[in-house]
Write a structure and sequence with these properties.
Order of helices and strands: HHHHHHHHHHHHHHHHH
Distance between the termini: 50 Å
Shape: globular
Largest sheet: none
Strand content: under 5%
Number of helices: 17
Oligomer: single chain
Helix content: over 70%
Structural class: mainly alpha
């Protein structure tokens, strides 16, 4: 049995930083580039969002119970006593072990939240509550598992679970970066929702089968599938594979557009704000590479299937992306290259 965790703020931060790679390798890589209070704020906000995701993603929990936990989580964000009580209250949660372990230490993450500057706390809580409010709405609307019906509903869902993250991050940039001021902020705010939503769309597309099989959730709209002779009940059926692929193709095209908007967001981050550029560039490059592979694949529409870029490409994109992130011209060139074919170590060494 592991020794009990200490109760100090330092103990909470050490625990959180150790836990982060288990719940997201990509963001664990990115968050480490952010300094001081900004890095602690983004880490805390990200972990709070993952706790909300863990509640929503429990495929076995009744909707009414999820709604109770969402309400309790919102209270935990505002009151220390509610935060301390939350892990015991949520002990029936199931799912990925690392995510469940995070949720069962919500009190530690809330301790980090309370250590942030007051204005920062307010913005984090505002956007996490906005996210949770949307999750609550969809869980109650679809008590037998989320089944998105229309493109408009899909957009609404993506706003709640990811557009909010883009808004939150952009407000934190303004609060904590000397390089994001009144001149830079409006251009970032104009595109910040798309920054979050683009990454979410790629995740939805690559995890179609996983979400349907393990989390009882289908995000490709029923109306789009119906246009191609299919539906939610036949999403993973081999007899409807071509129709489902055609339906998903329209969302792949939508994702390309959203990613290009997200890239414009990155271009508007001042070059001197290198830490923020480093944070943004890796998930965007990985998303472009994943979407490239999704465009040529049907694996995500088969039971047990998924689409992932290789570890070699992940490493190569990290090296090259960080080396060119200061230049919008070089970033554009890199993105064009990533869209065309895998960016692997052999290609890297060959120049």
């Amino acid at each position: 049995m592991a020794p009990p965790l200490g109760r100090s703020l330092d103990d909470a931060e050490r625990w959180a930083r150790a836990r982060l790679p288990a719940v997201s390798r990509t963001f664990a890589l990115s968050i480490r580039f952010l300094p001081g209070t900004l890095g602690r704020a983004v880490m805390t906000a990200y972990l709070l969002c993952r706790i909300a995701d863990t509640i929503e993603d429990d495929g076995a929990m009744p909707a009414a119970r999820k709604a109770e936990l969402f309400d309790a989580f919102r209270r935990a964000l505002d009151a220390e006593a509610a935060a301390d009580a939350f892990p015991a209250l949520a002990s029936d949660i199931t799912g990925d072990r690392a995510h469940v372990e995070l949720l069962l230490h919500t009190d530690l993450v809330c301790r980090l939240l309370r250590s942030l500057p007051v204005r920062t706390q307010e913005r984090v809580v505002h956007w996490v509550v906005e996210m949770v409010t949307g999750m609550h709405k969809f869980v109650v609307l679809y008590p037998h598992g989320i089944r998105i019906q229309t493109l408009a509903e899909y957009r609404e869902y993506c706003y709640y679970v990811a557009g909010t993250v883009g808004c939150l991050l952009t407000e934190l940039w303004r609060e904590h970066s000397p390089h994001i001021g009144e001149r830079e902020y409006p251009g970032l705010w104009e595109r910040c929702q798309k920054f979050g939503e683009a990454l979410q769309t790629v995740n939805i597309l690559k995890d179609i089968a996983w979400d349907a099989e393990h989390e009882n959730a289908i995000y490709i709209p029923a109306s789009t599938l119906a246009e191609h002779g299919s539906g939610h009940a036949t999403l993973l059926g081999s007899a409807h594979l071509e129709g489902n692929k055609a339906a998903v193709a329209s969302f792949i095209e939508l994702a390309w557009q959203d990613l290009d908007e997200a890239l414009e967001y990155l271009y508007r981050v001042p070059r001197r704000a290198l830490a923020i550029r480093a944070f943004c560039v890796l998930p965007l490059l990985y998303a472009y590479a994943t979407l490239r592979d999704l465009s040529a694949s049907r694996s995500m529409l088969k039971a047990g299937g998924s689409v992932k870029i290789s570890r070699g490409e992940v490493r190569s994109l990290m090296i090259v992306g960080l080396s060119v992130m200061w230049s919008n011209r070089l970033l554009r060139s890199l993105v064009r290259r990533v869209k065309q074919r895998p960016f692997n170590p052999i290609a890297l060494s060959a120049g």
